[in-house]
Amino acid sequence: MTFLTIKDISKRYGPVLALDRIDLDVVAGSRTAIVGPSGSGKTTLLRIIAGFEQPDVGQVVLEGETLADGPAIVPAHRRGIGIVSQDGALFPHLSVADNIGFGMERGTPNRETLIHDLVDMVELDRTMLDRRPHQLSGGQQQRVALARALARKPRLMLLDEPFSALDTGLRENMRKAVSRVLQNAGITAILVTHDQAEALSFADQVAVLRDGRLVQAGTPQTLYLNPVDRETATFLGDAILMQAEVADGFADCLLGRIEADTKDRRGRADIMLRPEQLRLTAMIEGPEPLQTCSAKVVDVEFGGAVCAVTLALGGAPLVVKSSGVGLPAVGSTVQVAVLGKAHVFKAVAS
């Protein structure tokens, strides 16, 4: 069931068109990630949903209630929307308990019990309730900010790059913890992030913005394996892009004849493979089977669990991701096997 509808939203700052006719639906109880390069409009869109900005045109409808219809908007404090920002925005002079309690209405009965329940929900130790924000780690501060936002029992939670200031390992742990808390509470969430891997792992739906336009929206798997264009493909991760002749479910390219999602396409086309779709093995005597070719190793970059092996293929370098175990030697010849199908980009209208 559609929980949030964003319809035909546009926003201009003077001569700059920040958002251009954005349409997006969010399902109840789901997690949506909005990603895009700097200046793509993702933060502007989040602020319009929150009620901090007015759209020039378009509508924002939450659970059947129109929150924005062009410049006519419902104020932010009446929307029932929680928000967690990058820095947490905790009050430095208040304790953890008072920071969390600040999100509650005055005179809330059983206030102390509710604060304890929220601390448990965000997986913090109750012994931290008397501490001040400067006595907490970055991850602990973000958990307090999340608890404060949850205290208002929001219909929708907005997360504005809440993990970007954290160390890499802590970011992953916090992302999983926040996802778990929101899922257990049954709260619909929208995350804005510049980290593509974070978006793919956190969300049920990913929306890619570019130059103020919604380029593509769908499941993480769909966007990663079937991006709408080359720019989206490379934005969401490493990609092997090449030209091929496509027809009848196959593509003839530098890697030989491989399976491809050609549908009814025939002729010249751009195709994409993700580096992890290629597997390297020692050369086997005899004719090369379908979906394989041979190539010479020209460079090996060790990276632990995932290494980069550069191959010379048809005069062009090709980088393949490989396990750190059993890496081929520079100068050796290997067999390259292709797993799954190549993605064929749609023809560009002339």
Please provide a written account of the structure:
By secondary structure, the chain is α+β, with helices and mostly antiparallel strands. The chain has two domains: 2-234, Rossmann fold (3-Layer(aba) Sandwich), CATH 3.40.50.300; 238-344, OB fold (Dihydrolipoamide Acetyltransferase, E2P) (Beta Barrel), CATH 2.40.50.100. 22% of the residues lie in helices and 37% in strands. The chain has eight helices and 21 strands. α3 crosses α4 (138-150) and α4 packs parallel to α5. This is ABC transporter ATP-binding protein.
Query: How confident overall, as mean pLDDT?
Result: 89
Secondary-structure content class: alpha+beta
Indicate the low-confidence ranges by residue numbers.
none
CATH domain class of the largest domain:
Alpha Beta
Count of DSSP H/I helices: 8
Protein name: ABC transporter ATP-binding protein
Keywords: ATP-binding, Cell membrane, Ion transport, Iron, Iron transport, Membrane, Nucleotide-binding, Transport
GO molecular function: ABC-type ferric iron transporter activity; ATP binding; ATP hydrolysis activity
GO biological process, one term: quaternary ammonium group transport
